[in-house]
Amino acid sequence: MSERKLPTIYTCFPGGKHKVLTMSYDDGKLEDRRLVSIFNKYGIKGTFHLNSGLEMDTRIPTSEYQELYKGHEVSCHTLTHPTIARCPMEQVVSQVLDDRKNLEAIMGYPVRGLSYPNGSYSKEIINALPSLGIRYARTVTSTMSFAMPENFLEWNPTCHHNKNLLELGQQFVDLFKKQYLYMMYVWGHSYEFTNQNNWELMEDFCKLVGKRDDIWYATNIEIVDYLDAAKRLQYTADCSHVYNPSAASVWICVNDTNFIELKGGTMTELPIGEWAK
């Protein structure tokens, strides 16, 4: 009995890319205005984790959120930024949900991400987040690598921008092995550039990594949603066909040469080779 040769099928990022860059900045200080302008200049996307319960002169007014962060993502950082691992769970729940409700009312879309305030969290908090509508949560533990996360609710970034940013950026740009998916995830606080008088660091980094054909520029939630959609793909047993039940497209690579867009709600026949005798 003849059978098809076993194909090699890889998940890709949109456009068939194998690298993704995402930026993550906390606290919503006034310096976000300058940071967003740099990101926009180089086609880079950021996720901004905000405390909607802290209105003060050093922070972006909530009235500016919708316009300033257009094209980027607004995400939770708790209502008032407590060290939540020390708080009772009743307070943790309120801190996350109240922040989420406020931000959603301002932005007009579901807010489903979080960065842990002061880097503080526990297993109990991680386990509670899905019931609060939180799909991912970022830590402050840098991996100094470009590996994809194992758990989006304990999402370790590549680096803080003060830790070998340009060196890691060059390594990321130079990555070429397309059998892997790579992610560079940078985090920090925009006010740190003012405090340390080193805005040129972010300008140089964005100039290095921005507007490149082989990098997908995405917010945190866009990465999570895309990979969730990729996991929902339904392949036939011989991998000759695949159905995409999601609304959004997913990209795959077949046998290293065929980059295919699987459009939402469609069945696609894959070019997996001739029948083997």
TrEMBL record:
Gene Ontology molecular functions: hydrolase activity, acting on carbon-nitrogen (but not peptide) bonds
Coiled coil (UniProt feature): none
Principal location listed in the UniProt entry: secreted
Pfam family, one: Polysacc_deac_1
Residues of the signal peptide: none
UniProt KW Signal keyword: yes
Listed InterPro entries: Glyco_hydro/deAcase_b/a-brl (IPR011330), NODB_dom (IPR002509), Polysacch_Deacetylase (IPR051398)
Keywords linked to the UniProt accession: Signal
GO CC annotations, alphabetized: extracellular region
GO BP field: carbohydrate metabolic process
Domain NodB homology: 17-218
Localization per record: Secreted
Keyword field contains Thylakoid: no
Cited SUPFAM superfamilies: Glycoside hydrolase/deacetylase
Protein name per the record: Polysaccharide deacetylase family protein
